[in-house]
Amino acid sequence: MLRYVLTRFAIWIPSVLIVMLAVYALAFYGAGDPIKLIFLRAPGDVAYNPQRIEAIRESAGLNKPFIVQFGLYIWNLLHGQFGNSLTSGRSVWAMVSAAAPVSFQLALCSIILTAVVAIPLGMIAALNQNSRIDYAILGSALLLWAIPAYVAGPLLMVGLIVLLPGASVPYGWGGILDVRILLPLLVLSFQPIALIVRQTRAAVIEVLSEDFVRTARAKGVPEIVVALRHILRPVLTPVVTQLGLIMITIVNGAIFVELVFGLPGLGRLTVQALINSDYPVILAITLIGSFLVMVSNLLVDVLYPLLDPRANDSRRSR
Amino acid sequence: MSFDQSDKTNISRRNALKLGLAAGVGLTVFGMNARIVLADEGQVLKVAHPAFDQDWSPLRGGGRTFRWNSIWWAAPMYFDSEGNIKPYVFTSWESADNTVWTFKIDPKAVFSDGSRITAADVKGSWEVASMPNTKSQRADQVLSKVKGYAEIAAGSGNELTGVATPDEGTVVVTLAAADPIFFMRLANHIAPITRASQSRGSDGEEIIDWYKPDSQPVFSGPFKLTSIDIDAGKLSFEPNENFFGPKPKLARIDITSIEDNVSATSLIKSGEFNAHTELITSTIIQDLGPEFSAGPLIPTSQHFWFNISRAPMDDPKVRQALIMAVDRDGLFKASYPDGPHKKADQILNSVPGADNSGFEPYPYDPAGAKKLLAESSYGGPERLPKILFVGISGPAIQAAAQFIAEQWRQNLGITAVDMKPQQDSYAGPDQNSVQIFRDDVGTRVPDAVSYLAGSIASTSSNAQNKLGGYKNDKVDSALAEATTKPADDPQRIALAQQAQKAFRDDWAFIPWYSQAMSRWATKEVKGLEKNLDWQIVEPWNISIG
């Protein structure tokens, strides 16, 4: 197992290097010079001063050739230095480590909410296949899937103000125990809930036709026991795997939710870094994203046999 | 009494549910309390800030954070909302030759710890603001003519050799060239006065985070920064009890980053916030009332600039035809039907000389425009290359650009028009074919010459970049002569007007609108007038209710 994990890490390192090289090249050759961006915001560009811009560029090392800059970045990274933000001068590590816990907490809550809501709904839909309940659940899931976060967020926020005059606007971050988290959590969970409902429903329908379910029912086991003990357990394995993958999507993709509801997480930081062409911050976030993907894939691979003993048996039989 | 060990370790399902319910209720109440604590009433100005800015150094000289400089820093002098110059740290200014200027510091001017603001602090503040690594966006507007500035800006020096401090209360500035309005350039918060020993390191560079409460800084303005959470985007300011000016009326100013305009509007409507740094939405008047964004016109204006070196703008008749084919009343109505801005006919606005400047507005003459296009070297619309606009970002700008394109289609038969939002960084395949740049031009001092020097003089960035290397000797010589005249000399204004008239004859832009300085505050907020520098004129006068 250890060898397997080490091999995966060894494969991950060149993959990440390629990703970093691509991101660095896009930032380097693409539109948006961070130093010019700082200076070209004055009315009429009267603050534009090529001499001054060149002096700043030189002090930030941005006048060096592409490959030298990239090499220096990787060298610093190997020494645990993520560098400083080009626009604020702050340590990138400090910025990312302040933002990441917010995104992770939010993602974790979203996953829990998704599991608590979506798995039972998916089961209910499957157990009432082709009934009105099934159609209602499936239809709702489709609706949730179709509404993007940048539409749902502002709509719910404005709707709350219209429906409940005097209610506080849910804005800002006070931790996962703060009531303000409810609305962003809902918005963030819409699409994962829709996905898991449909996946659970499909998996349950498949399991319903299995012999062991028919046997349990034939033995007179109560329907609720059949559902929870015989159907739910085999269904959980792929669903939990999917939930793990969704978590990455949520951490990486909470941009609109974090902007609309003022949550100081990675999404918000990403937008700010992109607007400012702040390469060190963009690269650090990219690195975290690719690390998350790698770790979750690794965890899924490692945990799969633990979740489903049959997978372990098949590996042993090989 | 017997004690069943299994009861101790195994919790029943019913009890688990009860426990879960109690925990849920407890956590919810805790969460609600956390929200209630945040609510605050009274004389607290709650400001929504549109960007998650991570750099609040007062020495940056530009950007959105700069717009709050006057609440916590003092300036040499300041312009009031009427455009009159007022003493602040400096009580007097004089120059016999417009090259050597002497300024006297108010003996009562002190920092928040009660210590005196000295000439050394003024010199040090200007020097650190000029250092390239400080990344001040506008230090050059204030200090570029001071001896030694050019070396600092180029990274080869760290001292303003032209600034002398003969005593604690006197600053003598020697300029590289005479500038009759130098005193006006200082009257802003672009390079505010800080304690130099705190803001500047031994290497001459700005000390990172020197202004944060953890560094125990001293402040020169009416409020002091008491807390800052950069990662959450929150700042709080409280009155500076040693402020040498009038006592502030507010108990606190809270600034919170709210990037989303819908959220910001909702928070202002619900009363949780009462001001904004810069809220621009197409429905702002419907949402928050006309008072929210109302304000006086400032010397900044928006236009569509023609790159005269690129086809088809290289033909003056084409340029003239394109301008005359646009009904500019309609153009303004299409973009800002409810204000707060005002239609512009010329570049100059809200500076001495803007009225009766002699600049005759461009006529709307579709028939004349069609005739000119036919007479041009292109012979008609079918032989014109595609016309490409950049800087078309935001609903109002899009409406304006689409109106222009539609006028050209109807009046001239031009159909090949394209628009891109990017401006300075436009990097599409047609990058070298962009002929029209939508952009603003302006000045920070109420002076016509300064306004035009930054927009139509051949040395300006606008002329070099957006106008495609525009150069008109009549314009340049009139402005060059005007800069030597004192601020109150009628000749200075007359020469500026003459330059603008000469520019008119080159048909190089479509005038659009003169910008209003919006309050961006609810009507309950009083005393929030701003000056040309986007600063609150007298922050000590702000009150609520």
TrEMBL record, chain A:
SUPFAM superfamilies according to UniProt: MetI-like (SSF161098)
Gene3D superfamilies the UniProt entry points to: MetI-like
Domain ABC transmembrane type-1 as annotated: residue spans: 100-300
A cellular component term, taken from the record's GO annotations: plasma membrane
Membrane-crossing residue ranges in chain numbering: 9-31, 102-123, 135-164, 176-197, 239-261, 281-307
Keywords associated with the record: Cell membrane, Membrane, Transmembrane, Transmembrane helix, Transport
GO-annotated biological processes: transmembrane transport
Cellular location(s): Cell membrane
This protein's record includes keyword Ligase: no
Assigned protein family: Belongs to the binding-protein-dependent transport system permease family.
PANTHER family in the record: DIPEPTIDE TRANSPORT SYSTEM PERMEASE PROTEIN DPPB-RELATED, PEPTIDE ABC TRANSPORTER PERMEASE PROTEIN
Protein name: ABC transporter permease
Phylogenetic placement of the source organism: Bacteria, Pseudomonadati, Pseudomonadota, Alphaproteobacteria, Hyphomicrobiales
